[in-house]
Design goal:
Order of helices and strands: HHEHHEHEHEHEEEHEHHHEEEEHEEEHH
Radius of gyration: 28 Å
Largest sheet: 7 strands, mixed
Helix content: 25-40%
Bound molecules: pyridoxal-5'-phosphate, 2-acetamido-2-deoxy-beta-D-glucopyranose
Strand order of the largest sheet: 2-8-7-6-5-3-4
Number of helices: 14
Structural class: alpha/beta
Oligomer: single chain
Strand content: 5-15%
CATH architecture of the largest domain: 3-Layer(aba) Sandwich
CATH topology of the largest domain: Aspartate Aminotransferase, domain 2
Number of strands: 15
Distance between the termini: 52 Å
Shape: globular
Number of domains: 3
CATH superfamily of the largest domain: Type I PLP-dependent aspartate aminotransferase-like (Major domain)
Length: 470
């Protein structure tokens, strides 16, 4: 750019050099130099700006809340509504979270505790877990044993091991009423254990077997369809209750859950899926010990850094609620209670569900599961479920997952959850706001258009299996 300026100044000056002409030329060159300098600076600063924590795209997206405007998004952008990544919580923690520092000398040792059933579990985390359940009222912890693992997925495997290792005639049949969480069959069968094997739908097992030698996994509220469930096999087999979503933002808390083995996870409680923190509340000491043994032999406990982070997050949540006394914590949001995690997440999910339902009821193409009203002891009022996933049914199209693919929305088809009907697909409601907004507008497009008439180019590429398991 400075190249052509000098010669043109020169030809401008040569015929008649005056003071004014010299000043004009100097000004021009100055302006060009300032422009060039600012350009170079802008480029180099964008190169050297650190990417905090190696986060995709730097700072977390969507500081704005659900009330922000619906920005049009590029049609080609693929919306991954397939995996259940709980990034809906990001804006909350960005706004309200308190930084935490773990000094380099801290928690160097393998072992941490003398008090727990395993020396790899941090006392202070167990204390926070108990406090959280006390505040929320969603699980009995008195006289129970707490086992900590790398997400509830590791604990599920630990529980399968604990329930089957001393059985006289393995392999035990692992069942769950369909539609069941798509990870259950994969996690059960991938090591081809001699102790247990996946046997599919629990209703089918109840109806066709002698109800012997089995483990039933009960998930409530259920992933993918958000329904409330009870064990269906009438026998004396092992029971694992996966309560990943039994938190007030997703479903009314009707009473403290009280089952033999209950699995919870930080992933869906506060959104910190990347920390990989899960816990099991276990009635029987022997079962808790066997689960701890599995975790010891598998990963020698869970990272103490992750345990410290989980305790920090829980302490924050508990602190803010206990300042308000004890439950019920009324829902009506006021200026001073948007800092409350469950209130914040409840509002966000409620808003999204309202938007999605508004779209679905106005048209004939999609339908959604209806959820009953129930009295939530945590909020002290009657509420309904706003699950982390919507179980979408296509009423006119043969294959719902494919239909959504045609507008570049990835979802998880019913077959992954053990049902053969391709009219169902699962979409995530806990993705980030921008993605949800785009998802909503693409569904609106489908709602308005006649069958399969879409202008958006079809992308055939599928997400790989590892992403599809979450
Ligand atoms: C029902 C259910 N159980 C367990 C998990 C696994 O959670 P974690 O991140 O704790 O392994 C998920 C995650 O999506 C889930 O939906
Ligand atoms: C469960 O089985 C027992 C007999 O084994 C029977 O008495 C009982 O009625 C059954 N319960 C249900 C709910 O079917
Ligand atoms: C939230 O604020 C509203 C209005 O100020 C109030 O009625 C409600 O009790 C508050 N909820 C909690 C849990 O503090
Ligand atoms: C959905 O489609 C119907 C027509 O089938 C239309 O009346 C309605 O306005 C659409 N809803 C939205 C939210 O666009
Ligand atoms: C769908 O149709 C309704 C009117 O029937 C219109 O208001 C809306 O903007 C349309 N939405 C899309 C995404 O085309």
């Amino acid at each position: 750019m400075s190249g052509p300026v000098a010669p043109s100044c020169f030809t401008f000056l040569v015929p008649r050099i005056t003071k004014n002409r010299i000043i004009f030329c100097l000004l021009l060159v100055n302006l060009v130099l300032i422009f060039l300098y600012s350009e170079v600076k802008r480029q180099s600063s964008s190169l050297s700006r650190p990417n905090p924590g190696g986060y995709r795209g730097g700072k977390p997206e969507g500081i704005n809340t659900d009330s922000s405007s619906h920005a049009p998004a590029s049609d080609a952008l693929i919306i991954n509504s397939d995996i259940g990544d709980p990034v809906i919580f990001e804006p909350y923690w960005l706004k309200y979270g308190i930084d935490m520092v773990i000094p380099p000398w801290h928690s160097i040792s393998y072992v941490s505790s003398q008090r727990q059933i395993s020396p790899f579990f941090e006392d202070f985390l167990i204390d926070e877990i108990i406090s959280v359940h006390k505040i929320v009222g969603n699980a009995v912890t008195k006289d129970r044993h707490i086992v900590i693992g790398a997400g509830s997925i590791q604990l599920l495997q630990a529980a399968l091991y604990a329930l089957s290792v001393n059985d006289r005639s393995p392999p035990l049949k692992v069942v769950s009423a369909y539609p069941f969480y798509s990870a259950y069959p994969m996690v059960t069968d991938f090591v081809q254990s001699k102790l247990y094997e996946w046997a599919g739908d629990a209703m089918d097992f109840e109806a066709t077997s002698n109800r012997d030698g089995y483990i039933e996994i009960v998930n409530y509220p259920n992933n993918p369809d958000g329904t409330f469930r009870h064990a269906v096999v009438n026998g004396s087999g092992g029971l694992i209750h996966d309560l990943a979503y039994y938190w007030p933002q997703y479903t009314p808390i009707t009473s403290p859950a009280d089952h033999d083995i209950m699995l919870f996870t930080l992933s869906k409680f506060s959104g910190h899926a990347g920390s990989r923190v899960g816990w099991a509340i276990v009635k029987d000491l022997k079962v808790a010990q066997l689960m701890s043994k599995y975790i010891f032999l598998n990963t020698i406990g869970l990272s103490r850094d992750a345990q410290a982070r989980a305790a920090h997050i829980m302490r924050y949540v508990v602190h803010h609620y206990s300042q308000k006394g004890s439950a019920p914590y009324r829902l009506k949001t006021g200026p001073d209670n948007t800092t409350l995690l469950f209130h914040h997440a409840y509002d966000a999910l409620k808003h999204r569900w309202k938007e999605l339902r508004g779209l679905v009821v106005s048209g004939a193409r999609f339908t959604l599961q209806d959820y009953p009203l129930a009295f939530c002891t945590f909020f002290g009022e009657t509420t309904t479920s706003h699950p982390a996933f919507a179980w979408l049914k296509c009423e006119q199209d043969r294959n719902c997952e494919e239909l959504l693919n045609s507008v570049n929305v990835r979802s998880r088809g019913g077959h992954q959850f053990g049902i053969l009907d391709p009219q169902y697909t699962r979409i995530s409601m806990i993705l980030n706001l921008k993605e949800f907004t785009t998802l909503h507008s693409r569904l609106a497009l489908l709602n308005n258009s006649s069958q399969t008439q879409c202008e958006i180019e079809l992308t055939t590429e599928r997400s790989d299996w590892s992403a599809r398991y979450l």
